[in-house]
Design brief:
By secondary structure, the chain is α/β, with parallel strands linked by helices. The chain contains 20 helices and 25 strands.
């Protein structure tokens, strides 16, 4: 999730592009760059790091010109570096491009272009675009762009300039957000509205597979097939602050709503319809490697550790390899039995958590192979692990992790299926069943987000409580732990999660009249057991909200409120069941007037021991 901007008009482009990028830096801050068309040439300035680093360079080397594009990067393909920074250009720097999204077939396109004699300088997926446009260019940048994007698969928002046609700024959109700001004698493009708000409140919201051709006095919109589109101007009434949150009140609720896309992106080019194999990026784990592995450790902290607990269940269930899951701060000091027959999986959104990093190093020192599951390209964990599997959740700003967690779950399923296929424990039939159900999760998550009223009502009833209890069995227990952590983190309610069968061995003594209990019952084979556990707490006066799949109506007879989840396989339930728990924590914190995005005593990345 990068931020792109563009300007065409009478004014100097650089200050306008920099201002716009500063409003989009929440989308990514690995590198930044601009390309300016001036006197028939394109001048580029780009570098690794925050926008401020680029501003320093532009102070030292000012660039003139009133047509330009800019970019702030969230790395997905190619580590953060000066070379991998956008804009990217063709060989003779007559075409430059900024991109937000993922080009899924970039490797195939790259091979083809190299066979035609094109040279590549970067590791990015984006660099194929300027070379493709160059290949089709015969004096008409609009036509060449249409031909080029017809070859591209994946998601993209593109800003394109061409020094041979300095009166045009091109924008193209498919699956990644892109708007056009309509000015007076000037026009703008941007990934999001905050970037153009200082100049105009009139925008065109480009739809999927649409392209805009901007001159300083006009904006024309076409489908990428070339059909003209008449589009209404949308007048923005939001203030800048809420615009950065896309109109949401907090980054956390915005990120909760970004989960359907994050789930889809993290499955992209790894799990594909009708394809009977998992593509695990560059991770080369052979059947022999797996045969030599006698233990898997999953090590992480906080929410990432909770994703690891789901990982243990699904890897043992699908690949039948023993898995131990550990909090990193304990793992690193308990002299764990690690050797060359050990596979370690470390999970970290930030990729910089000190305890997780130390656990990784301990594993490698003792000969283990380490797979890192992280959300930040080029982070320490990514760089030091043997292999890395990126979650593509995009930047997560709110301290309380939400979308990164569900993408970590998807990563656990992908690894479990990959290992299970490798050692033959997952049959074609079982693989297809789980694959097809996983590919439906984004849509089901979207549907679930529409069901917030029930949760808002429960939050409004119970936000005054000092204690809350979460219960579940099997995978539901792992998700209950995450639900309890969310509400602790942002609403400061003392919430505890228990394996439901464990209640009668002590914790049930804490249940009293009106105490809120959140019960998860998504595991078909454990459903009846969960019903009796719910009855146990109801008998002590608890006020219960339950989460179960549509169709399990019996649960409504023993619960005060029920949130029904779209039906999926029990093994995949955590991806859906956690979403209403995130919403419950969010609405409870809002009711209590807490600082949702920046809760007390917490940091987004814990880089100290
Ligand atoms: C989760 O909401 C918290 N921010 C925290 O528990 C977090 O999961 C933990 O600090 C691990 O962070 P990481 O995933 O960046 O390593």
């Amino acid at each position: 999730m990068c931020g792109i901007v563009g300007y065409i008009g009478p004014k100097k482009a650089v200050p306008i592009l920099i201002e716009g990028l500063s409003k989009l830096e929440y989308r990514g801050y690995d590198s930044a760059g601009v390309a300016i068309v001036n006197n028939g040439k394109i001048e580029i300035e780009k570098c690794k790091g925050r926008l401020s680093a680029l501003e320093e360079r532009l102070k030292a080397n000012p660039i003139d010109g009133s047509l330009g594009i800019g970019h702030t990067r969230w790395a997905t393909h190619g580590e953060p570096s000066d070379v991998n920074s956008h804009p990217h250009s063709n060989k003779d720097f007559t075409i430059s491009v900024v991109h937000n999204g993922i080009i899924e077939n970039y490797l195939k396109l790259k091979e083809w272009l190299i066979s035609l004699g094109y040279e590549f300088k970067t590791e990015t997926d984006t660099e194929v675009v300027p070379h493709l446009i160059d290949y089709f260019y015969d004096g008409d940048i609009v036509k060449a762009t249409m031909q080029a994007v017809s070859k591209i698969e994946g998601s993209y928002a593109l800003g394109i300039v061409c020094s041979k046609e300095p009166d045009k700024l091109i924008a193209v959109r498919k699956d990644s957000p892109l708007i056009v700001g309509k000015g007076n004698g000037e026009n703008f493009i941007a990934s999001d509205i905050p970037a153009v708000l200082p100049y105009t409140r009139d925008v065109y919201l480009l739809d999927n597979r649409e392209m805009a051709v901007l001159t300083k006095d006009n904006v024309e919109i076409y489908t990428i097939e070339g059909l003209k589109v008449n589009k209404e101007v949308f007048h923005v009434t939001w203030d800048a602050a809420s615009a950065e949150k896309g109109g949401y009140e907090h980054f956390m609720i915005k990120e909760i709503h970004e989960q359907p896309k994050a789930i889809k992106d993290t499955m992209t080019s790894r799990l594909m319809p009708g394809v009977d194999e998992i593509k695990l990026d560059d991770i080369k784990l052979t059947k022999e490697d797996l045969q030599n592995i006698n233990k898997i450790y999953i090590v992480a902290c906080g929410t990432a550790y909770h994703a690891g607990m789901v990982g243990k269940y699904v890897i043992e269930r699908l690949a039948k390899v023993p898995v131990e899951v550990d909090v990193a701060s304990e793992f690193r000091y308990r002299n764990p039995l690690i050797n060359k027959n050990t596979l370690m999986i470390v999970i970290s959104q930030s990729g910089e958590t000190a305890d997780t990093l130390a656990a990784l190093r301990l594993g490698k020192e003792n000969g283990a192979r380490v797979i890192a599951v992280t959300n930040v390209v080029g982070s320490s964990v990514a760089r030091e692990a043997t292999d890395v599997l990126y979650t593509w959740a995009g930047p997560e700003i709110a301290v309380a992790s939400t979308k990164a967690y569900v993408t970590q779950l998807i990563a656990m399923y992908i690894i479990a299926l990959y290992l299970g296929r490798l050692n033959g424990n997952v049959s074609d039939e079982e693989f297809r069943l789980i694959r097809d159900e996983m590919l439906k999760l984004p849509e089901k998550a979207e549907h679930l987000l529409e069901q917030k009223e029930t949760i808002q009502k429960f939050a409004a009833m119970h936000y005054v409580h000092k204690d809350m209890f979460y219960i579940g069995r099997g995978l539901d227990f792992a998700v209950a732990l995450e639900g309890a952590l969310k509400i602790k983190e942002i609403s400061y309610i003392h919430a505890e999660a228990y394996a439901a069968g464990e209640l009668k061995h002590g914790p049930i003594a804490l249940i009293d009249k009106g105490v809120p209990v959140i019960a998860l019952a998504t595991q078909d084979e454990l459903f009846e057991k969960m019903l009796s556990n719910i009855k146990e707490v109801v008998a002590r006066g608890a006020h219960v909200i339950s989460f179960a799949f549509e169709g399990n109506d019996d649960i409504s007879k023993v619960s005060d409120a029920v949130v029904y989840l779209p039906k999926t396989l029990s093994i995949l339930a955590p991806v859906l069941s956690v979403i209403p728990l995130q919403l419950l924590a969010y609405y409870t914190a809002v009711e209590r007037g807490c600082d949702v995005d920046k809760p007390r005593n917490l940091a987004k990345s814990v880089t100290v021991e």
